[in-house]
């Protein structure tokens, strides 16, 4: 019986030992797998730590009390602390302002939602300097949903914020300067749409400043679907050169100065126009011109009716005296003859003065007649081949405009005769596409390109006269190939029919 019991115990122990060996083998395999997994986890952890420590962005982690429990080297370097110095500090301890907002608003919200996005903070570094950072992060929770810690990345935006503040300051200063100007200032893009404008521009448009952006000036200010004719600003888009002129709209006269805008690569990117309402100034100029014209007419009338009649009377008396003295005293008769001759010369001189006082007749065709007389007079006086051509009548109702155009032509002809050494001058007046054009062309020495923009008082006066009547003025010439002076007259100045 004892032997049988021992045998059973031995068999049982043998089976248990075999089971133990199997379990031990299984545990050995499990241990090997766990060991491999551990090593892989440690390798991942090492890679993460290397990335975490060397990433240029700062990283920090806060516990439920908003104290720092972890940070990378970039975060510590940014604030100027060693990592062991900064761990345990409250994030609030690093803030220059907004501590209560952080503790009572943003951090509780962070814990509740698990996210923090684009929060901007002013912080103080260990050396006392102030910087601006932006934080973004997520929160970590346990399996029960309880908050464990935050994971935050920080970005230094100090220089960016300084640049933004400088830009905002510049914009404010620009707006302040533009706001004090009495002129309308508008910046257009390369497609003529408004980019920005000053308050005067907004007021004259009758809409808020921000609503002007993206609109076309001729739609906003003039209710047009197409650009205004003869607008200097529109010419900039064709020539990419500065233009100056006048625009007549709704009974007002605007002086427009337009300049192209180029980028650093000299590519055309837009245009700035400055316009000023000069209606009152133009009215005053017109009144002065009218006063001057009336005064010339009065002087002419006084000369004709006063001095002219006296000279005629003296001529008659001298003629009668010559007849009476011819039979009595021949020498005295010759003196009377000389008095008659002197009187006729004085009358011719007076007529010349009268013509100089009123060069252009106060009629629509007055400019054409005056230019024809100018050409004829120059040919006779200077022995230069000077002609005037006008295939179709160009009628200008405003005597002041006609007078300015005549003086432009007169100055151009005078310059050609005196300075160019020309033998031929052509004066022409035509009306292509509804707008008037006055041209004076010679075959003289010509102008260098630098001279065509500013060549003394004569050209400046001609340009001024053109601006006064809203015309454009251009000088073309090459050395040895003559000079052309072209004045383009707005279509609004041209009469459609003779009165």
TrEMBL record:
Residues 117-169, 240-290 form the PAC domain. InterPro entries: HATPase_C_sf, HATPase_dom, His_kinase_dom, PAC, PAS, PAS-assoc_C, PAS-like_dom_sf, PAS_4. GO terms for biological process: regulation of DNA-templated transcription. SUPFAM superfamilies: ATPase domain of HSP90 chaperone/DNA topoisomerase II/histidine kinase (SSF55874), PYP-like sensor domain (PAS domain) (SSF55785). Residues 44-95 form the PAS domain. GO terms for cellular component: membrane. Residues 302-493 form the Histidine kinase domain. CDD domains: HATPase_UhpB-NarQ-NarX-like, PAS. Keywords: Kinase, Transferase, Two-component regulatory system. The keyword Transferase applies. GO terms for molecular function: phosphorelay sensor kinase activity; protein dimerization activity. PROSITE patterns: HIS_KIN, PAC, PAS. The keyword Acyltransferase does not apply. This is PAS domain S-box protein. It comes from Oryzomonas rubra.
């Amino acid at each position: 019986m004892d032997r049988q019991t021992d045998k059973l115990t031995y068999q049982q122990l043998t089976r248990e030992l075999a089971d133990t060996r199997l379990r031990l083998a299984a545990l050995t395999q499990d241990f090997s797998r766990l060991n491999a997994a551990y090593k892989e986890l440690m390798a991942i952890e090492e890679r993460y730590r290397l990335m975490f420590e060397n990433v240029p962005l700062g990283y920090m982690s806060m516990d439920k009390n908003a104290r720092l429990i972890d940070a990378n080297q970039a975060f510590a370097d940014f604030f100027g602390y060693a990592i062991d110095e900064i761990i345990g500090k409250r994030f609030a301890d690093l803030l220059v302002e907004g501590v209560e907002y952080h503790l009572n608003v943003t951090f509780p919200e962070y814990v509740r939602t698990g996210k923090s996005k684009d929060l901007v903070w002013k912080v103080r570094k260990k050396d006392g300097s102030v910087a601006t950072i932006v934080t973004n992060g997520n929160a970590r929770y346990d399996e029960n949903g309880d908050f464990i810690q935050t994971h935050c990345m920080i970005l230094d935006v100090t220089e960016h914020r300084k640049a933004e503040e400088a830009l905002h300051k510049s914009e404010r200063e620009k707006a302040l300067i533009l706001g004090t100007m009495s002129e309308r200032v508008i910046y257009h893009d390369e497609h003529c749409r408004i980019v920005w404008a000053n308050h005067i521009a907004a007021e004259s448009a009758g809409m808020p400043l921000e609503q002007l952006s993206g609109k076309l000036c001729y739609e906003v200010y003039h209710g047009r679907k197409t650009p205004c004719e003869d607008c200097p600003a529109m010419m900039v888009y064709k020539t990419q050169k500065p233009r100056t002129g006048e625009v007549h709209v709704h009974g007002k006269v605007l002086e427009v100065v337009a300049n192209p805008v180029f980028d650093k690569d000299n590519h055309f990117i837009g245009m700035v126009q400055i316009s000023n309402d000069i209606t009152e100034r133009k009215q005053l100029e017109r009144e002065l011109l009218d006063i001057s014209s009336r005064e010339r007419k009065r002087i002419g009338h006084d000369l004709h009716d006063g001095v002219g009649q006296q000279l005629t009377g003296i001529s008659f008396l001298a003629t009668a005296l010559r007849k009476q003295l011819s039979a009595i005293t021949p020498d005295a008769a010759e003196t009377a003859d000389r008095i008659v001759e002197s009187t006729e010369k004085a009358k011719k001189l007076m007529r010349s003065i009268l013509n100089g006082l009123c060069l252009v007749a106060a009629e629509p065709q007055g400019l054409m007649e005056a230019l024809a007389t100018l050409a004829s007079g120059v040919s006779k006086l200077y022995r230069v081949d000077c002609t005037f051509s006008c295939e179709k009548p160009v009628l200008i109702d405003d005597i002041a405009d006609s007078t300015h155009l005549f003086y432009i032509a007169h100055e151009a002809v005078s310059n050609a005769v005196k300075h160019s050494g020309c033998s031929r001058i052509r004066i022409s007046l035509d009306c292509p596409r509804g707008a008037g054009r006055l041209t004076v062309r010679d075959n003289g020495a010509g102008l260098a390109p630098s001279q065509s923009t500013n060549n003394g008082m004569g050209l400046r006066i001609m340009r001024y006269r053109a601006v006064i009547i809203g015309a454009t003025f251009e000088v073309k010439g090459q050395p040895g190939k003559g000079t052309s002076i072209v004045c383009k007259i707005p279509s609004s100045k041209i009469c459609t029919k003779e009165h």
